[in-house]
Amino acid sequence: MRKQIILTFFVYLFSFTLHAQVDNYCIRLASGGQVDCGPMPELDEASSYSLQWWMNADAWTPGATLFQRGSDFSVVLGENKRVLFNIGGKQVTAASNNLVTGQWVQVTAVITNGSAALYVNGSRSGSGKLSPISTSKASFIIGGGSYEGRIDEVRIWNNVLSTDYDRFIHNTLNKWVPQLDDLVAYYKFDQNLCPDIVDYKALFAPSEYNHHGTLSDGAQREQVTDNSGLPYLLCGAYTNNNRFYDRAVDRDKYLLANDLIILGLNCFNDGHVKVKTPNNHATLVEADYLESFEGRSGVIRFNGEGSYLECTKETLAPDINDNGIAATGYTFETWLYLDEWTEGAYLFRKESGDGQKGFSIRLGSEEKKQVIVRVNGKQYVNINKMPVGEWVHFAVTPFAGGTTRLTFLFSFNGTEAWSNASASDSSTDYTPTGMENYVATIGEGLKGKMDETAIWNLKFSLDQIKSHMAELPMPAIGKSITADPMLKVSSLYLYDKADRPGYDSYSQDEWLAIMKSAYQGYRGYQIRISVDGDTNKGWQTTIANANLRKVFAADIARLSEPYDGVELDLEWMDGTQTNLGLLCDEILAVLPKGKTLMVSAHQYGAYKYPKEKIQTIDGFTFQQYGPQNNWFSYSSFVNGAQAFQNYGFPNNKMYLSYSTTTSGGFLNGTQKAAITGVRKGFFDNGYVPDAAGNYETMEYNGYTYYFMGPTQVYLRAKYVVDNNMQGIFYWDMGNDVPTAHRYSLPKACNYALSANVDTLITEVEVRHPVGIESLRSDERSTIPEGVYTLSGIRVDGQSPLPPSVYILRKDKKVTKRIVQ
Length: 820
Prior knowledge:
Blueprint: E1 5-6, E2 25-29, E3 34-39, E4 49-57, E5 65-69, E6 73-77, E7 82-87, E8 90-95, E9 105-112, E10 115-120, E11 123-129, E12 139-143, E13 149-157, E14 183-187, H1 200-204, E15 214-215, E16 219-223, E17 234-240, H2 251-255, E18 259-267, E19 273-275, E20 283-285, E21 288-293, E22 296-303, E23 308-310, E24 331-338, E25 346-351, E26 358-363, E27 371-375, E28 378-382, E29 391-398, E30 408-412, E31 415-417, E32 441-442, E33 447-456, H3 462-470, H4 483-487, E34 489-493, H5 508-517, E35 522-523, E36 526-532, H6 539-543, H7 546-559, E37 565-569, E38 575-576, H8 578-590, E39 596-602, E40 607-608, E41 619-623, H9 634-647, E42 654-659, E43 665-667, E44 670-673, E45 696-700, E46 703-707, H10 710-722, E47 727-731, H11 745-750, E48 758-759, E49 761-763, H12 777-780, E50 789-791, E51 805-810, E52 813-818
Parallel strand pairs: 17-18, 17-47, 18-36, 36-37, 37-39, 38-40, 39-41, 41-42, 42-47
Antiparallel strand pairs: 1-49, 2-13, 2-16, 3-12, 3-15, 4-9, 4-13, 5-6, 5-12, 6-7, 7-8, 9-10, 10-11, 13-14, 18-19, 20-23, 21-22, 22-33, 23-32, 24-29, 24-33, 25-26, 25-32, 26-27, 27-28, 29-30, 30-31, 33-34, 35-48, 43-44, 45-46, 50-51, 51-52
Helix pairs in contact: 7-8
């Protein structure tokens, strides 16, 4: 028995070798070479079934076996340009000029109640009558005779395969394939790290036994680089860095994309590029990490003698509106354990040396247990609430109650407290100013411990602060967190990483780690970061200036470090893009080796990238969707693709698209409202997709919205495959319905162009179905005479039995037997 090991690991720690797209492998057979797939009782007495494969013969030897099962099931080469199906004593022939040596060809056999329809490269190439497949305990064998050549993408179904989705002949399969229950075995051959041949059906729907294959001498894997009919292309998905956490994007959505594009960078008119969520990682200065203390794990100890956490200039940066007032406020909260009271010690400080600009929180008089908030030199003093020698959850946030006393809310273990008016300065100013050039610090002069220190660019209610005592809002795959707090995060120091105790868990690095976790245990994907030029119009000044282009490029090179590549999404830029081409030259000159550079463009070649520079870029993401209604038609998609080609973009640089959002809302033919998403219920309430794949409409709130249904998305992806383009992507992950929904658009896309994100497997446990003869000899004597069948079905609602235990049934009586 071979033990299956599906490697799980934190992919964040691994190199780019796992991020490259999966390679296509086939099986190469020399004469006598074979793959033993074990018995397939699912085919016994079948009169309706389907068989599919790709083949490329080195030599055309009549009688050479492609597949065999027992004495009356075989598929062999016939005379030139013929394949013979010999089943149940009858024979049918597939004949096609495409059946020649040295050429990849796809064959599909669909048998319906004994009537065979044979297809070569999708064209009807034979028909006839076949008898039902006989019952047999013999193994299903790939090869095993004199066949010499390659075989790929073998699929065995125990039912008639629907004509939907062109029977997937130019695509690989994933677990969402329709008729999954009818799929008996699927050999993709791509698990090149595994000694045996993986049956993907066992991955998609695990059961007590499987049809993993074992290789004989004369059979080996070989990488496929010459089959344009089965292209492995990019299947991408955009996610908005600032919104991925409130959409509850399920893990399967990530696994349907081998190219994740995070819109996570902004550029400015000084040439600089910054992440949308800053990485405010703190540095420990003379402070210590403790694994645990007084019931809390992962804490920081301050010794009061020059120890503190040094944060960043970006830590705490309240939004300022046009009137110069903090639009949303700010909050500081932490778990605090004071070993002793140290007057003048700072819990938090981001202010000028004289304290006249900025914001700080410090300890005052020990006698009165003063906690002092200072804003632009004005002090707000709370007294007699802060304990010593015990953990307390402490928070400060502006209350803006119109008096000095009510300017700030102090919270101690969720109990509200206020400033003491007589001890405070007469002021209601809670908006710190002039602190943008100061680095924030935590714990200066403090003797004690801290845990879960959170700093927000947002003020919270007492109830919200109390909820944070139990659990801070933290994103995760498939989990929805309210957008407003997460859009206003500043820094979170959980102190739970022994090697990086000052790690900021509300950071771009953490958002990346969370998204990467969706791919844990998988390979065949890449994650890229995209520069957004829409919110901040500074890119227009930047790319027009030679010196600023260098600044931009240097920032991109540095920020690309944890990603597989970068993309420029600088909207809008109609006409000739000479400066953009020069900017890309600068980026390419400094971008680390192995990282890709792509440029985003719009419909009909409105973005005219310099033709002489097209080949230097890895690809162009063409945004073929709204908000205008006409972009939601299939004809516009095709016309746009042809316009790109006519301009000079080669197919292998063209990365086409679809959208999970809608057009803008139209009223009497005029766009009046913003786009919306399919989560608004467009795919519910009896929705039936347009069979022709045209644009679709829905009335919502008095407006007409245009959107793409699953049929059109499938056709767009098929167009990309048929023209062997670079791939297809969509905007965006958060607006699709859950992947399990019948009309999930990325799922429909994968029916034409599979992402090929693959489970990483190094070994499998081969558990072929066994017969009664497989019981150990010491058990056989206990079995009375009778007809038995071996089954792994659930019994009395219990979970499937372990691999070593099977069920013997006789006259509805159940007996457990151990099998070899």
